[in-house]
Design brief:
Layout: H1 23-27, E1 33-40, H2 50-60, E2 65-74, E3 80-84, H3 90-93, H4 109-118, E4 124-131, H5 136-144, H6 157-174
């Protein structure tokens, strides 16, 4: 599959598909951008609509703005097929088509190839790129105040749950 744009870092600027907004115009509008890849083993994908409903709720509350969403399927022979939402069969995507209005193409063909390379044969993956719209006004205020991001990170949910369990166990031993 061919994707028409370059990697994420090259899509914002004077020639951006948003009509040519300059970086200073976008600064007040753009929050941090994240991505995730969710893999489903062969025969285990359940596109019943539950994931789409949760994503739609996040979009409707202006918590996130979906920037790109691609479905990948790795055949048993190892070939990878990528589907844009507008090209995917409704039975494969459930309600995810509702997110299509907010999509912009940010993932490059090389991104898709790299992700496809690590999938197990017969599996499906969803690749989601989103803007944390809730953080855009705060981030713009920080930048206008002369601040700049030094670092950021994410603590995996599994690590938080493990720490909470260890804390509970320690309190139970000390009680």
């Amino acid at each position: 599959m061919r994707r028409k744009t370059a990697r994420c870092g090259n899509v914002i600027g004077a020639d951006a598909p948003d009509g040519g907004k300059m970086m200073s115009d976008i600064d007040a509008e753009l929050g941090p951008v994240d991505y995730l890849v969710v893999a489903f083993p062969a025969g285990k994908a359940d596109f019943s609509g539950e994931m789409a409903s949760e994503l739609r709720a996040l979009m409707d509350s202006n918590t996130v703005r979906v920037l790109d969403l691609v479905l990948l399927t790795k055949d048993l022979d190892g070939s990878v097929e990528a589907s844009e939402l507008r090209d995917a069969d409704d039975s494969e995507i459930g309600q995810l088509r509702a997110a299509e209005a907010d999509l912009a193409v940010l993932l490059a063909e090389s991104d898709v190839e790299e992700i496809g390379g690590v999938l197990e044969p017969g599996s499906t993956a969803a690749v989601l790129v989103w803007e944390n719209s809730w953080a855009a006004p705060f981030g713009a205020a920080v930048r206008r105040s002369g601040g700049q991001l030094v670092t950021s990170g994410r603590i995996p949910t599994q690590a938080i749950l493990a720490a909470m369990e260890a804390d509970r166990a320690a309190r139970a031993e000390g009680a």
